[in-house]
Design goal:
It is a single chain. By secondary structure, this protein is α/β, with parallel strands linked by helices. It has two domains: about 190 residues, FAD/NAD(P)-binding domain (3-Layer(bba) Sandwich), CATH 3.50.50; about 190 residues, Polyamine Oxidase, Chain A, domain 2. The protein is built from 13 helices and 23 strands. The protein binds flavin-adenine dinucleotide. The site of flavin-adenine dinucleotide has 40 residues, from helix 2, strand 17 and helix 13.
């Protein structure tokens, strides 16, 4: 055996001893106070951790990613704030995030949905009258679908029965994706025909965050003990103390608050001993995680009408780069953001950057002519394959019921508590829903002790 190999073996053995030590002695989060391990540093986890820490608990947050924020994350690599996940505060007047966002130094801009021009695939503008009429018909159709809906039929199935021809019409495809699939997250073939609108929305227009939603996560993270790069793989709650394992460490705590997204729960990345109650396992399997992707394109000069808020186009493929947000309206950047929705959100993840640019430019050239230049930069998301989320947000599908989201929030043995957007029927798929769910679980623990 040469020296180098011997040395390698020694370091291997000492690493093994070190690992053995780590695994045989769980890290106690606290020896004096009640301790809580919060899994996930998204807004629900951070809000929960904050509240418990303020109330005298010893709290540790374990986060699998290299950054905090989860589905609130801002990429500043091009200068402009590109929010990869959430962008809007929905109906800010009543929304609890509004006050917190101000405290976090967040700036906002009122987005007006009506400030839009929509073009057909030949580049002709739809008239205001046409858009207004179709919008009313679309709202009426949603009501009809709920009336004729069934627990085991998807939105699309009921829609096709009621309106056999409409799904072939480009403007309907536009509304069903840029509005419905964006809002709910899933493809219309999977969205429940009964429960797609049973969540609650506050009144009023939305505001978009102009300097990065990530600031909200940073604000909540101040003063918290957060361990990044720590994906949890096991939770053992057979004894009084809960044992939680990551790849290299073991933790011991009195309570665990689990805030990982529904997509992560569905993939069974975390093993539980004993298994979670069957009802919870079934709901996790049945509820769905949707997919929406965002694409930010940056140019030297704007070639579009910069007074517009939104630009729409109605291509043949549903959900394909059909809605553009004009960021020049509220930033100094010549930038547009577009989206992929429903089934096309998954297809877009298989395309290279140059293919994405070609497809998007194809749509913009229909509107603005062939001479417009390619963007100098593109930023994009792939939420479907993101291993910390496996999708954008949760939604009800065939066989699920309205209260399944609330049922997911039931704690197990008063030891494992569940927070996250997917645990709120009322406010699922939103930042405020996730935030309120974190406070709700902190409150439960405070009431329990
Ligand atoms: C594209 C997109 C657009 C959106 N737009 C809006 C919007 O405009 N307005 C709005 O209100 N909402 C919007 N949302 C929804 C909103 O972002 C989410 O509902 C909210 O941020 C979810 O917070 P959360 O704490 O429940 O989950 P997350 O933010 O996902 O936090 C969960 C955390 O758990 C971590 N984690 C995962 N697995 C493990 C593991 N094994 N161990 C440890 N940690 C783990 C994750 O990395 C993550 O940080 C959008 C979401 C997306 C994706």
């Amino acid at each position: 055996m040469n020296r180098k190999k011997f040395f390698q073996n020694i370091s291997f053995i000492s690493a093994l001893i070190q690992l053995q030590k780590i695994f045989s002695n769980p890290i106690k989060i606290s020896s004096k106070k009640k301790s809580v391990l919060v899994i996930g540093a998204g807004i629900s986890g951070l809000a929960c951790a904050n509240k418990l820490q303020q109330n005298g608990f010893d709290v540790l947050v374990l986060e699998s990613d290299t950054k905090i924020g989860g589905r609130i994350k801002t990429d500043y690599s091009l200068g402009i704030a590109f929010d990869q996940g959430a962008s809007w505060i929905h109906s800010p007047k009543e929304n609890p995030i509004t006050k917190l966002a101000k405290e976090a130094g967040i700036k906002t801009f009122l987005t007006v949905n009506d400030n839009v021009e929509i073009y057909n695939k030949k580049g002709n503008l739809y008239t205001e009258n046409y858009i207004d009429t179709l919008t009313i018909n679309y709202k009426n159709a949603q009501e009809e679908i709920i009336k004729n809906g069934d627990k085991n039929n998807s939105f699309e199935e009921v829609f096709k029965t009621l309106y056999p021809k409409k799904l072939e019409q480009p403007f309907w495809k536009f509304m069903l994706s840029a509005d419905l699939e964006f809002d709910i997250g899933g493809d219309i073939s999977e969205i429940s025909s009964l429960y797609f609108q049973d969540d609650e929305v506050f009144e009023g227009e939305d505001v978009i965050i102009t300097n990065g939603y990530g600031k909200l996560a940073d604000y909540f993270a101040k003063g918290l003990n957060i361990k990044l790069n720590s994906p949890v793989s096991e939770i053992d709650y057979r004894s009084e103390k809960i044992i939680t394992k990551t790849k290299n460490e073991i933790f011991e705590s009195d309570f665990v608050v689990l805030t990982v997204p529904l997509g992560v729960l569905k993939k069974k990345i975390i093993q539980f001993s004993p298994n979670l109650p069957q009802e919870k396992i079934d709901i996790i399997q049945n509820l769905k995680m949707g997919n929406v992707n965002k694409f930010l394109l940056l140019w030297e000069k704007a070639f579009w009408d910069t007074s517009l808020q939104y630009i729409g186009i109605t291509p043949d493929t549903k959900g394909k780069f059909n809605y553009f947000l004009n960021l020049k309206k509220f930033t100094e950047y010549n930038a547009l953001m577009t989206f992929s929705f429903g089934k096309y959100a998954y297809i877009s993840e298989t395309l290279s950057n140059s293919e994405i640019i070609e497809e998007i430019m194809g749509h913009l050239k229909i509107i603005y002519g062939n001479k417009i230049p390619n963007p100098k930069n593109l930023l994009r998301t792939k939420w479907g394959e993101n291993k910390n989320a496996f999708g954008c947000y949760s939604f009800p599908t065939n066989g699920t019921t309205s209260d399944d989201f609330d049922k997911l929030s039931k704690s197990v043995n008063n030891k494992i508590f569940f927070a996250g957007e997917h645990t709120s029927t009322k406010y699922r798929a939103t930042v405020h829903g996730a935030y309120l769910s974190g406070l709700r679980e902190a409150e439960k623990i405070l009431n329990y002790i």
